[in-house]
Amino acid sequence: MATTVERAAPAPPVVTVPDRFNVADYLVDRHVREGRGGRTAILFGDESITYAQVADRSNRVSNGLRSLGVRREERVLLLLLDTPAFVYSFFGAQKIGAVPIPTNTLLKSQDYRYMLNDSRARVAILSESLLPQLAAIPRSELPYLDHIVIDGVASGEMSGLDQLLTGPSALGLEPTGKDDAAFWLYSSGTTGFPKGAVHLHHDIVYTVVCYAQGVLGITAEDRTFSVAKLFFAYGLGNALTFPFAVGATTILWPGPPSPPNVYA
Predict the structure, then answer these.
(1) 23-262: what fold?
(2) pLDDT per residue over 181-238, tens digit each?
(3) CB of 102 within 8 A of CB of 236?
(4) Which of 54, 116, 27, 117 lies closest to 79, judged by CA?
(5) Is residue 101 a contact partner of residue 121, using CB atoms and an 8 Å limit?
(6) Domain ranges across the chain
(7) How much is the pTM?
(8) Distances (CA, A) of 11 to 8, 186, 202, 239, 257
(9) What is the rounded distance in angstroms from the CA atom of residue 173 to the CA atom of residue 163?
(10) What is the DSSP letter of 20?
């Protein structure tokens, strides 16, 4: 008869997050303070971007959002492809206590109308190629949206992300709490309308310690590439919060993750 030996499961890690906590500081600015600002944070095509550059550019977006009137806890919808602009905008919103909403780039105009109105987002930042989907919605049907910021050529009443990136980089970080909202993600595949799931600042630390480090074993020497896009929860972890938590490098690709693209 076979003998089985029961072994006690390892104790889960103890995760402690201070009451005053801003996850963008944890994921970005901490590396600069601790001497890792020169490490490569993002590889995007031929471009190599350091943690210090991400800190600087996200600060500029923060100041730009403040100049547009965005305040703590207000939502900023991100309709952006997997580009450095996503990273700057995501952290730029969080640094001032605003709440970014990474949004599926494959949806239709009526979906974006619903999400903009449901979230009451005051600003939408989007890739230029996705503008037609938003432009098809009459502004009269978007009563809460005050500003559209384009990562590309801006026209009319729209602002360009490049304009925000030329602003000041000095920033006073908003003293958010660990239980404050850090970002929303809208559900998919459920009955009825999508649901806005609220993620808190401390949530990311738990996923990093318990999964990225505890299961995947990610370290600062790793490079990550995610087939799942940044607007998916798993893609946001794989391509942004997991590598940034440990000072690793993420490889971003804005196009579809087809085999020719992935293995090129």
Answers:
(1) Rossmann fold (3.40.50)
(2) 999 999 987 778 899 999 999 999 999 999 999 999 999 999 999 999 999 999 999 9
(3) yes
(4) 116
(5) yes
(6) 23-262
(7) 0.94
(8) 9, 33, 20, 28, 37
(9) 21
(10) B
